[in-house]
Write a structure and sequence with these properties.
By secondary structure, this protein is an alpha/beta fold. It has helices at residues 194-199, 204-219, 223-233, 238-249, and strands at residues 3-4, 9-10, 15-16, 21-22, 27-28, 33-34, 39-40, 45-46, 50-52, 57-58, 63-66, 79-82, 87-88, 93-95, 103-106, 111-112, 117-118, 123-124, 129-130, 135-136, 141-142, 147-148, 153-154, 159-160, 165-166, 171-172, 180-183, 188-192. The longest helix is centred in the C-terminal third of the chain and has 16 residues, at 204-219. The chain has an 11-stranded mixed sheet. It has a 9-stranded parallel sheet with strand order 2-5-8-11-14-17-20-23-26, with no helix packed on it.
Length: 256
């Protein structure tokens, strides 16, 4: 049974699962689907196009599936899909998709801190921590287990690899490959995310392979040559293959 505060507004056509708590001054619009065991604290707005899984917590002022801040948006039917067990803090805004991809996606077990913005058609993976006032422009992709500190600005179409640590205040218009620390001004490669990898259970041997792979790739004047050398040296490493594939797919170039 859902607990809906008398001061909340829930459209009768919205589809709610079971055991949701909807606090005062929340607004749930018509074209919304919500799973089970979610908690909406006061003053949360859930717009048309929201698709919300199970066990999420939304803090005051959060605005989910907002209209995209994109002049090319012409009112097409799109969605913002939120997975399971996310903590979405105060004043977070998540736009729904546009005709480009049709949806914005936030996966599972993420922490989106206060006042951050996820723009249209972004894809956020699982297990990410994203700091206060960080802003993602349209169609940014963030892979699993990334940690992105406060007040980071990410250019549209950028990709951020898994298991990275992006330092606070960073601005990037290039892709950030997996397993690294990115920071300084202008943004650049600042080493391997050693502490983060150890916390995630990576062995010393695997960490050394990752470190050596970046040494090989960055020392080569041509990235393609470095990728070939790394693959030849570590043909059975899934981490090396992830790094190489990420760089090969990059359209905006990677940080150096």
């Amino acid at each position: 049974m859902n607990q809906i505060h008398p001061l909340a507004v829930v459209d009768p056509e919205a589809k709610l699962g079971d055991n949701n708590i909807i606090g005062p001054f929340c607004v749930i619009n018509k074209d919304v689907i919500i799973g089970d065991n979610n908690r909406f604290l006061n003053s949360v707005t859930v717009h048309d196009g929201a698709r919300i899984g199970n066990g999420n917590e939304f803090f005051p002022g959060a605005s989910i599936a907002t209209k995209p801040q994109d002049l090319k948006f012409k009112g097409e039917i799109t969605t913002a899909e939120i997975g399971n067990n996310n903590s979405i803090r105060e004043n977070v805004t998540i736009s729904r998709g546009t005709a480009s991809k049709g949806k914005t996606v936030v996966g599972n077990n993420n922490l989106l801190m206060e006042n951050m913005h996820v723009a249209h058609d972004c894809v956020i993976g699982n297990g990410c921590i994203i700091g206060n006032s960080t802003k993602f422009a349209g169609e940014v992709v963030v892979d699993d287990n990334a940690i992105i500190s406060a007040e980071v600005l990410v250019h549209q179409f950028n990709n951020i690899g898994g298991f990275v640590m992006v330092q606070g205040g960073t601005r990037t218009s290039q892709d950030i490959p997996p397993y690294v620390i990115a920071g300084k001004e202008p943004v650049r490669f600042a080493g391997i995310n050693l502490i983060g990898l150890r916390r995630r259970g990576f062995s010393n041997e695997t960490i050394e392979i990752i470190h050596d792979t970046y040494r090989i790739i960055y020392e080569q004047g041509i990235l393609k040559d470095g990728i070939m050398e790394a693959r030849t040296k570590y043909p059975d490493s899934k981490e090396v293959e992830y790094i190489c594939t990420f760089i090969e797919k990059s359209k905006r170039g990677i940080i150096r």
